[in-house]
Amino acid sequence: MELNILLLFMIFSAIVAVQLEDLLSSVIAVGAVGLGLSLAFLVLKAPDLAITQLVVEILCLIILIRATIKKDLPFSTSGRWVFNTMSTLAFIAVFLFFAYFALRELPRFGAPIMRVAQEYVTNGLKKTGATNLVAAIILDYRGYDTLGEATILFTAVIGVLAVIRKIGRIKNERV
Amino acid sequence: MKESEPGMTLIVKTITRLTVGLILLFGIYIVLHGHLTPGGGFAGGVIIALSFVHLMLAFGRELALKKISQARASIIESLGALMFLFIAVLGFSGGYFFFNFFVNKGRPFHLFSAGIIPLCNIAISLKVGAGLFAIFAALILFRSNGKEE
Fold it and tell me: Worst-scoring range by mean pLDDT, A71-85, B50-64, B81-95?
């Protein structure tokens, strides 16, 4: 019940974020979507994800607000809107058609198939000694996945620092 | 208050002076207790980065960059990544990559338990926190540089 209300709130905020013309208000509406997602994780009993989502959402919100403040980009509505709307509706219809067959095969919500997870839940505490089973899985059983995630973040930071670095940038007038 | 002082107003600065240490302490708590309670290296690292971002927003970039410069943040981030890899490679002493090589895992619900998991949490928190702070500092410096030109 709470989950459905949260999902409706998130969909509403997302639509508001797309439709608003003021960029700063739109960023704040995106932040409302993220905070709703954090609450949804909490309702689904995943506090680890809720904390991470909340904290990352706040950081992203600060960066986005710093980036968009006092920069009111004009919103262009001209162009082939009939064609755009029609193609969007067509793609949504195709997606729903295939999603119907794909989602029918999934296990029911709240009734997962405990094939691999059963081993973690029963033996996780004894084998790793960590009482937070999420930490035991992401850092012990699935260490490779965490290494991949860390590499992704490392590459992203290197990329950002390489693109907008201060040293070695060529000034405009010299070119 | 002088007009030339960087940062926000006196109210924001006073509140920041009171809260920023608590935020940093909470981030360290989340990291160190990652194997006992919800949280972990990623969330704790972002909270640590947020405390420095908070400092930078309230007091201006000079003071925050004096605490940790952008180059030092990059070095800390690389050290975190290398530490994580080093812990993973140390697992070969027990047989395979990412092996939890502590024989005595300690008692559950105690701070010193769970073998390599707290060490991995600390490494990831250093990496994530310093990396995100470096990105934020780079964006701020990029904006201010663009204004001068």
Answer: A71-85
| C-beta atoms of A161 and B138 within 8 A | yes
- Residue pair B46/B128 in contact (Cβ under 8 Å)? The answer is yes
Query: What's the pLDDT score for residue B60?
Result: 80
Measure the CA–CA gap between B81 and B74, rounded to whole angstroms: 11
| Model pLDDT for residues A133-163, shown as the tens digit of each residue | 888 888 888 888 888 888 898 888 888 888 8
Please, what sign has the CA dihedral across residues B32, B34, B39, B45? positive
Residue B96 is given by DSSP the state: S
Of A52, A131, A171, the CB nearest to B36: A131
Q: ipTM of this predicted complex?
A: 0.77
What letter would DSSP give residue B8?
S
Q: How many CB atoms lie within 10 A of CB B133?
A: 29
Token look-up 């908070």 returns B54
Contacts of residue B61, Cβ cutoff 8 Å, sequence gap at least 6: B6, B137, B140, B141, B144
Distance, in Å, from the CA atom of B121 to the CA atom of B47, rounded to the nearest integer, reads: 14
User: If pLDDT is split at 50, 70 and 90, which confidence band does A94 have?
Assistant: very high
Interchain CB contact of B60 with A (< 8 Å): no
CA-CA distance, A103 to A51, in Å (whole number)?
29
